[in-house]
Amino acid sequence: MGRSFENRKHSMAKTQGAKSKLYAKYGKEIYVVAKNGSPDPDANLSLRRLIDKAKKDQVPAHVIEKAIDKAAGGGGEDFVPVRYEGFGPGGCMVIVDCLTDNNNRTFGDVRVAFNKGKAKLGGQGAVAHMFDHRAVFVFAYDDEDEVLETLMEADVDVADIENEDGKITVYAPHTEFFKAKTALHEAYPDMAIEVEEIAFVPQTIAELSGEDVEQFEKFMDLMNDVEDVQEIYHNAEIAE
Among 11-20, 78-87, 150-159, 181-190, where is mean pLDDT lowest? Predict the structure, then answer.
């Protein structure tokens, strides 16, 4: 699943759109997390995780600081998280996380993207039960037994660990994110961790081929064009 997780990330990044959309996405999410918690990353672990992720995606410091300053100043917009679930081309399963200040607008935009993408919007819980909410870490290393032992010694509850072609993927419950991250960074301070995030990981894979591939990519483009969409999780994998 490690390689397919990377593939799914790649397909999402490929259709992420312009940098301005990426910056706006992070700006909104950082603002919400800072406003609902603390604008101090040392006191707000969720904010610290988000800032680290934004920096990895090369979001400029001024975008991050502006969002935090806005949250610290009070007032501003009231964004709420909304999740949509459904089925994409080829029967793949999709979870779409949004932040919105207008539920009706967001629902309308998401529904249009599903319809134009020849996908089917489902009800709450339609596919979420087929995904695991996980902390995910991906890095180049060749000894998964050693990594597992390191994490277990740090009292991290590891859900799964894989090694594919010298690339290790660690899955842990999403609540174990900071414990796992700290253990990995302390044990391997010089190692570059390519992916460290909380995500919905599918329990099964839907392999797409033929026309479904083109339709899926169109669907992803449509969904990424929706202003309020923050994250898209899916179980699609392009057949080789």
Answer: 11-20
